[in-house]
Structure formats: C-alpha cells, structure tokens
Amino acid sequence: MNFKSWAPLGAVALxxxxxxSAHAADKSVAVTAIVEHPALDAVRDGVxxxxxxxxxxxxxxxxxxxxxxxxxxxxxxxxxxxxxxDKPDAIVAIATPSAQAVVxxxxxxxxxxxxxxxxxxxxxxASWEPSKTNVTGVSDLLALDKQMDLVKQVVPGAxxxxxxxxxxxxxxxxxxxxLQKLLPTLGMTLVEAAAPRSVDVGSAARSLIGKVxxxxxxxxxxxxxxxxxxxxxxxxxxxxxxxxxxxxxxxxAVAAYGINYRDLGEQTxxxxxxxxxxxxxxxxxxxxxxxxxxxxxxxxAEKQGIKLSEAxxxxxxxxxx
Length: 321
Prior knowledge:
Structural class: alpha/beta
Largest sheet: 7 strands, mixed
Mean pLDDT: 92
Distance between the termini: 74 Å
Low-confidence stretches: 1-25
Radius of gyration: 23 Å
Number of strands: 13
Order of helices and strands: HEHEHEHEEHEHEHEHHEHEHEEHHE
Number of helices: 13
Helix content: 40-55%
Strand order of the largest sheet: 7-6-8-9-10-12-13
C-alpha cells in the first residue's frame, strides 16, 4: 500500500484527535480568591468537588484554573482582567474584593461570587432577586443577633465587644455598621480597631487591650489570614476570641457559630454547573448558605482566661481538642 492510500486514514486520525482534544476542554471555569486561608480554600475545593459531581471534571471535560491575589486588590484586578480575556464559560470569584474586581471587568462573562457577605452593599448585584446581568452567586451572610448570643454564652458579662477589621473591605464595613446598631439594643458597645493590611492585625488587636471584654471576628479576609496574631493577643491579654468562621476555632478562637465553607463551595459549584448546562446567570437568584455549625475550643478558652459551660460544649457540632 502506498503513502497516498494512508493519507485519508491519517486525516481521520487527526480529526478524531482534534475532536478528543476539544472535548477534553469543552467547558472552562476560572477561579480566583482574594487570599488563601482555610475558609476560602474550602470554598474553592467545594466548587471543584460539586462540579465533578455534576459531570464536569478537571482534565477530562473541564479546563480549571485558579489564582489567588495574595491579599492584594491590585493583583485581584490584574487576575480579573486576565481571566476575562481568557473568555471562560464562568468565573468564580471568592470573597468580596475579588468579586468586585471581576464584576468591574466584564459585563458578558458569567460571574458567580462566593463567600461574599452582602453582595448588594458590595454593588455586585442590585438586589437579592435575579440580577438580569451576568452576575449571581452565594453569600455567607450571618445573622448577627445569633452571633452576639454566642458572645453572651462565651462571656456572659461582656459589655464591650472589640472588632478588628479592614475598613477597605465592603463586607467588613457592613458588619461594623450592623453591630453599631445592634449592640446598644443588647446593652453592649462596639470598639473598633482598623487593620488595612494583614500585617496590621496584631497591632490593631493590641490596641484593644484594656478596652474590651471580648473580641469578635467576622469573615474579614485580612483578619482571618493573620489569625494567629490575634490569638497571641487574646492569650497574652486574656481576651476571649469569638469568631464567625469555624476554621478559626481550629486556629485558636474560643468558639464560632458559622457557615461550613466547604458546603458553601459545593452550593456555589452547583450554581456554576447550572450555568455550564445553559442557564443564564441573570436568571438565577443569589443564594445564602443556611447550614450553620457551632465549633468550640475549650483549650483555647482556658488560655484566654475563661471556661466554656458544659451545655455549650455539648451542643457543639465539633469540639476542637
């Protein structure tokens, strides 16, 4: 058989290889987070797991890429522009600063935010109804009255609640404003300390010594990424730390009544899958995670000068040893 008789077969083989290659990456998802810390990493991993469960597996029929902005909003904007230029089928933006950067960069590529406390205040969407734009997502909004109930259970006599936060992070500003309204109705006051960068968290916490009975930490990304600095102050000054992020309990907070961020990621991933299957993001109503869990750390409590009640420890979903 001469070469010419093989040519059509070669062409067929090339066509099959081309089709296989195209199929291997027939959907693409780009994921970005403002910083890497356990809660946001759990969201990312949850998204990927849910996509796999929905039939979209990295390396098979899904092109998956991930980049962290390492806490830098300028880097977040650069990542957003790069991802938009890649024209993926969806961009997942984890945490408020990354979501704001991506939404500012595109009006056409589908964007699914996750771990954003208040997407309306952050101007990602106009309301909690379907946006009719390219944006939808899942919020980690917490009921602050329940958070303060936990504070009272951990430190029954607490009157002054300290909070370290980044005034440049929209989700943290929302929490501060809400606590400023809520705490006086509970006979308590809020004492704030600004930490514009992660390296400022320790000094901001130290500024609260002698001024507060307890420190409450929200899901502020600067604070969570530098939580060990806060824990050191809590131990040295005997100020209990109550968190809204359950992963922070494993790192030294006394207790947290918060969202399971792996579940939040899976909820987000299922929403992304709907978009990959053809739904328009603007027709999907933004969601809030509803699964809440109580984590406690009796050892951390002792180091921070208190003892948790037996009833509180027994009611926890997880007791960190």
